[in-house]
Amino acid sequence: MVDAFRNMLDELMGKERDVPLDKRQNKPLEFDDPAVCKYELLALCPNRLFRNTKSDLGSCGFTIHDDHLEWPNIKEQWDKLPQREKDRFGYERDLIRYMEQLIRDMDAKIRKNKERAEAESRPKVLKVDDQRRLDEIKMRQAEMLARAGQLGEEGDVDGAIKAIK
Ligand SMILES: [Zn+2]
């Protein structure tokens, strides 16, 4: 009976109802919390985007993503910040760097696969259509990366992120 009452109080007032306000752990989440995925906050979390694909990047180092209850609040906090304030956190620069790293890794993988295919002397590894598509994708990727770099230099961070996406 006492337990049931305690549980009810926990539910109504939280487990920390007897802890002084400034000592409580369940403060509202802030966007700069170390557990919040900053990539997801800006645009998208690459680690989640490629999950269960051949390019699976493993799990994200951050644990809080858009399926968290308080996500809408912290997303709004972030979106409302003036650009100058956002720049101070450097999240956008970090995302662009991370994306560039991913593209470099992908290029290296493509190069390695190509070299291996050539070494195995199988000239027709890819069908003509597939090769054409791959060439197109690579060309487009290089274009967009160049564009992202250019926009980044011009200070158009939103544009750069869009280009990378
Ligand atoms: Zn993440």
Comma- or semicolon-separated keywords:
8 helices, mainly alpha, 165 residues, binds zinc ion
What does this structure look like?
There is one protein chain. This protein has 165 residues and is an all-alpha fold. The protein is built from 8 helices and no strands. It has helices at residues 2-13, 38-42, 46-49, 71-80, 83-89, 91-119, 128-153, 157-164. The protein has a domain at 90-165. The protein is elongated and about 75 Å long. Helix 7 runs antiparallel to helix 8. The protein binds zinc ion. Zinc ion binds next to helix 2 and helix 3. GO terms for molecular function: mRNA binding. One of its GO terms (cellular component) is U1 snRNP. One of its GO terms (biological process) is mRNA splice site recognition.
Helix tally equals 8
Tertiary shape = elongated
Q: By helix and strand content, what is the structural category?
A: mainly alpha
Helix content: 55-70%
In whole angstroms, the N-to-C terminal distance is 56 Å
Sequence of secondary-structure elements: HHHHHHHH
Main beta sheet: strand number and arrangement? none
Report strand %: under 5%
Bound molecules: zinc ion
Number of strands: 0
Task: Enumerate the spans where pLDDT stays under 50 for 5 or more consecutive residues.
Answer: none
Tell me the Rg in angstroms.
23 Å
The average pLDDT value, as a whole number, equals 85
InterPro entries: Luc7-rel (IPR004882)
Family: Belongs to the Luc7 family.
Pfam families: LUC7
GO molecular function, one term: mRNA binding
Helix and strand layout, with pairings?
Layout: H1 2-13, H2 38-42, H3 46-49, H4 71-80, H5 83-89, H6 91-119, H7 128-153, H8 157-164
Helix pairs in contact: 6-8, 7-8
The structure holds zinc ion (ZN).
